[in-house]
Amino acid sequence: MTRIFYRGAHCVFLTYDITRDETFENLRSWLKEIKQHAAEDVRIYLIGNKSELESAREVNFDRAVEFAR
Hints:
Blueprint: H1 3-6, E1 11-17, H2 21-25, H3 27-37, E2 43-49, H4 61-68
Parallel strand pairs: 1-2
């Protein structure tokens, strides 16, 4: 079902919870699905959610930047 949402999409927002490492790790499978089903020129944005919970952060900023590259 989710595959039809990629059709004709101009951008995709990959969002993860900065306080839960497992949500960040799941990005790899979501990215794979995007590359399989979305247009080649689709823009992908990486968003770290819950930034107000900095004291509970599990995914550091540098790691997210590296993934984005």
